[in-house]
Design brief:
The protein is an alpha+beta fold. It has one domain: 3-Layer(aba) Sandwich (Glutaredoxin), CATH 3.40.30.10. The chain contains nine helices and seven strands; from the N terminus they run βααββαβαααααβββα. The strands form two sheets. The protein has a five-stranded mixed β-sheet with strand order 2-7-6-3-4, sandwiched between helices. The chain has a two-stranded antiparallel ribbon with strand order 1-5. α4 packs antiparallel against α5, α4 crosses α8 and α6 packs antiparallel against α7. The longest helix is centred in the C-terminal third of the chain and has 21 residues. The protein is globular. 36% of the residues are buried. Its main location: periplasm.
Length: 218
């Protein structure tokens, strides 16, 4: 279910606190290469005392759109020692950068939860173009957001810094397809035999156990 850079280009053009637990058998039986692959070298998380789960995604990715309503309730139920962050990829393209900029600006404005899935639907169902600043501002205005307040956010240093941090993470994790889920800075969900996103998230659950066990041993 990965969305590669090439597929990404085609779509964009077309659219213009928990106790330490032992590994349970499912986690112990995960197979490297089939269910997961290693992040090399391992990457530190934003919170050293937490297991960090990252979702690399883009609004331009139809698979990310399908994953979004599945991963959100899953993330809301993660244990207290696990944090979850979404990282919008840009792959160095201006259009994708504007989508990432839209994500962060909405996060800062407090409108992300309300409009998150609507962005996917606008792009993939309504074929709305959201690849330029002008297009983005027109769309957010249609959703009841004050453009005079939103535009400075969209072009702010804070948003630019977030995009640069995201690009750095994409490079360090060697992301070349989305959606991509990583766990604890050590593991990437592969899920070759996964029959759907719930199966992939079940693998992520087991990788969290592996990451917790790794932390306990270090």
């Amino acid at each position: 279910m990965a969305f590669t850079r090439r597929r990404f280009t085609q779509t964009m053009i077309g659219a213009l606190g928990v106790a330490m637990l032992p590994l349970r058998p499912a986690a112990a039986n995960l197979v490297e290469g089939r269910d997961w692959r290693a992040v090399s070298p391992p990457q530190p998380g934003a919170a050293p005392d937490k297991i960090e789960v990252l979702e690399f995604f883009s609004y331009g990715c139809p698979h990310c759109m399908d994953l979004n309503p599945v991963i959100k309730p899953w993330a809301a139920k993660l244990p207290e020692d696990v944090t979850f962050r979404r990282i919008p990829v840009t792959f160095g393209r201006a259009a994708w950068s504007n989508l990432a900029r839209l994500f962060y600006a909405l996060e800062y404005s407090g409108d992300l939860d309300r409009l998150d899935q609507s962005i996917f639907e606008a792009l993939h169902h309504d074929r709305t173009k959201l690849f330029t600043e002008k297009d983005v501002l027109a769309w957010v205005a249609s959703k009841g957001i004050d453009v005079a307040t939103f535009e400075p956010l969209f072009n702010s240093f804070a948003v630019e810094a977030q995009i640069k941090r995201g690009d750095t993470l994409v490079e360090r994790y060697r992301v070349d397809a989305v959606p991509m889920i990583t766990v604890g800075g050590r593991y990437v969900v592969v899920g070759q035999q996964a029959k759907g996103f719930p199966d992939m998230l079940a693998i992520a659950d087991d990788l969290i156990l592996m990451a917790r066990e790794q932390t306990a041993q270090s």
